Amino acid sequence: MAGPINWFSQIGSITKFGLLSLPQRRGAAAATVIGIAGVVAVLVGVLSIAAGFRHAMAVSGSPDGAIVLRSGADSEMVSGFGRDETRVIANTPGIARTAQGPLASAELFVIIDLPKRSTGTDANVPLRGVEPAALLVRDNLKIVRGRMFEWGKDEVIVGSGAAQEFAGLDVGSNIQVGRYQWPVVGVFSANGSAAESEIWTDAKVLQAAYHRGDSFQSIYVKLDSPGSFQGFKDSLTSNPQLSVQVIRQSDYYAQQSETMTLLITILGYIIAVLMAVGAVLGALNTMYSAVAARTREIATLRALGFGGGAVVVSLMLESLLLALAGGVIGGALAYFAFNNFHTSTMNFQSFSQITFAFRVTPELLVRGVVWATVIGLIGGLFPAIRAARLPIASALREL
Amino acid sequence: MKFLHLIWCNLKRKKLRTSLTLLSIVVAFILFGFLSAIQQALVGGVALAGADRLIVREKVSIINLLPVSYEARMDRIPGVDFATHQTWFGGIYQDPKNFFMQNPVEPEKFLKIHPEIILPADEEKAWLATRTGAVVGRRTADRFHWKIGDKVPIRSTIWSQADGNRIWTFDLVGIYDGKDKGTDTTPLFFRYDYFDEARQYAKGRVGWYTIRIKDPTQAAEVAKRVDAEFENSPAETKTEPEGAFIQGWASQLGNIVLIVSSILGMVFFTILLVTGNTMAQAVRERTGELGVLKAIGFTNALVVALVLAESCLLTVLGGSLGLGLACVITPVMARNLAGLLPMFFFPVRDLLIGFGLSLALGLVTGIFPALQAMRLRVADALRRM
Question: How high is the ipTM of this complex?
Fold first, then answer.
């Protein structure tokens, strides 16, 4: 009578039996579900920070965008060019052009102190001076409130991330730049990219305020195609007049986020692994006590002719179901607690704040459920094997 | 003591369950150690900040430099003992990943204002005598296996020498230790006079000032006077106590680490809840036996004590193991995080708190079953067997 159909019906009935008796073991079962939900929530939550940060950096760099810095400079902060150099760079072949000229924006990058809304403590907020091409060099940049600043005027627009994180950046308020008060006239969004953490003004206006003469720190360019990067780079680096490095925007932002991503990932994984170990132990404990409590019941089933394999599979199914319930609850918790949570942190390389939103992506949720499944399987396997190996006669005698 | 054997046998009865519970507690307390190390790394500096020190930076942003001439003007402000300055050098040793801070300082004043930096007298003398000399903290010296006499080349991302060269080579003349465990011994300090003479631009301009004040209770007034002194000049200042400055710096890192720590806290208590439940259950299962003990003359108090001792033994054992492991693991992690969180370590105070927590956990998980056991009527308990 060992047909596969019979085997499946055995599994079905033992599992049903186990699930129906769950309410009697609700303390232990709840402990497993809560434990696993905790692991999944924490895992997904921590990784969503890293995912959000990476996303902000990834959308910042379009494949046909490049950044030119002084050679040896690891960020815009410490780079520098004169007007002559920026002119030579802007006229290098490979850069996309419009009727107004090449899509190259020579920019200045400084930081100013503004209080964080959340804590009231000062934070280094990036202030960028741009040229008109800046709006075309970056993808998806648009004004969402107020208006664009007027070129040549002491006015600024602020990124939507910065407007949300730092105090005193509402349209109509003033910020102090050097010894001057400049009005905020608009708020822009840029698809969640790093630019949203910044305050923008006309490069010429910023040069004057900071006594920078006619100098710049970086040049953002849009290439005529992603493929022309190498040619563009070679013609600049082989030019004896210049001492520059050319970086793809995407590589630049990946570099910039390296330290922070590393920090979050190290912390995140250590926590997640430790927690998972804790959860496996918890699940093992629950399932072992479930088996212990049902010794006679399982022995009776075996005596009635249910197979050992069926007992193993159905106990594992039970543990798996508990784990999945935990995984789903944990994923949902993480989603509601963390998704789109806005915050800002220090970008170590540029010494300035970057704002971003946590992202609980479907991939992360899937990963969470996979972890829950693995925990459930491990937690169920050993107790199930023990249950199947019980010597029937002595187990029945416990009656 | 004579009951220790009985308690031990009870724990041994279900070896598997006991060891699983024990391991969960161990994991929870490793996490606890980890959590307090993160906290320490973030806010530990605030506690160590000198109460008699003020930090003066440029008002708009710390990246804007201040004239070196401010030092003499600060020295004359009432309430100021003396002032000295530092500048961000932004150097890289071999690879950007090897991050640690390097700053040019005025050696004598620097050492005087930072008594927490312990430099042997002969090394201090060597530093004062060597223009290109530098001193480095124990942690960085150990990390790169530097010893006194080494030449250390550091490429600055900001400063070039007069000939345009960005690689600065320093003679390592001293290795300093910290007075407290929390003192950051990662930075390298070198001489400002050498730096100022050799740099190509911005000569005579420095990053920020540290002021020692005569009376720490006057900090706010002195800070106001300093800022008033430089008001309406091309470089206005912002002065605050060192503690506030460090606090502000930590909050620049943002709530990321705060979020991570609150998650850790949550985790810790989840694990404890789950474990507590299992342990309480283990006691409940033995109601009958407890009845037998009472039947043969054990007093109520003794039964309660037995149950509590058992749960406490388990949690304290697990707690100590976990805390011990945390003590071993955090220094290893600290090495990987050295550049980012230089003060990442597990403080003794938290070790004691952790130990207390493990005891409390034992009491909390043991008390309800223990009380139940106490109220148990012998006849009922025996019937349940």
Answer: 0.70
The pTM (predicted TM-score) of the whole model is 0.76
Distance from CA of A95 to the nearest CA of B (A): 28
Which range among A264-268, B133-137, B349-353 has the greatest average pLDDT? B133-137
Tokens standing for residue A334? 């993480």
φ/ψ of residue B375, rounded to 5 = -75, -10
Distance between CA atoms of B321 and B273, rounded to whole angstroms?
19
Please name the residue that has the structure tokens 């006849």: B379
B85 half-sphere exposure, CB direction, 13 A CA radius: 27
CATH topology assigned to domain B88-206 = Barwin-like endoglucanases (2.40.40)
- Number of H helices and E strands in chain A, helices first, is 12, 16
pLDDT digits (tens, 9 = 90+) for B80-103: 999 999 999 988 898 877 888 999
Closest residue to B267, CB basis, from A38, A267, A344 = A38
Lowest mean pLDDT among A95-99, A343-347, B238-242, B302-306: A343-347
B54 close to B210: Cβ distance less than 8 angstroms: yes
Contact present, A195 and A151 (Cβ < 8 Å): no
Q: Is the dihedral of CA A95, A96, A98, A104 positive or negative?
A: negative
| d(C-alpha A164, C-alpha A145), whole Å | 13
Nearest residue in chain A measured CA to CA from B248: A121
Burial class from Cβ neighbours inside 10 Å (0-12, 13-18, 19+) for residue A51 reads buried
Please indicate if any CB of chain B lies within 8 Å of the CB of A176.
yes
The residues spanned by each domain of chain A are 4-58+256-397, 72-242
Tell me the one-letter amino acid at B267: V
Task: Show me where the domains of chain B are located.
Answer: 4-45+254-384, 88-206
The DSSP secondary structure of A199-252, one letter per residue, reads: EEEEHHHHHHHTT-TTEESEEEEEBSSGGGHHHHHHHHHT-TT--EEEEEHHHH
Angle in degrees, 0-180, between the axes of helices A362-389 and A308-338, rounded to the nearest 10: 150
The mean pLDDT of A370-390, rounded to a whole number, is: 86
- The Cα A202–Cα A369 span in angstroms is 49
CA–CA gap between residue A82 and residue A95 (Å, rounded): 20
Distance CA B28, CA B31 (A): 5
The whole-angstrom distance between residue B334's C-alpha and the CA centroid of its chain comes to 10
Give me the residues of B, 221-280, that contact A with CB < 8 A.
Answer: 234, 236, 238, 247-248, 251-257, 259-260, 263-264, 266-267, 270-271, 273-275, 277-278
pLDDT in tens, B219-264: 889 999 999 999 888 888 999 998 888 877 777 776 666 776 777 7
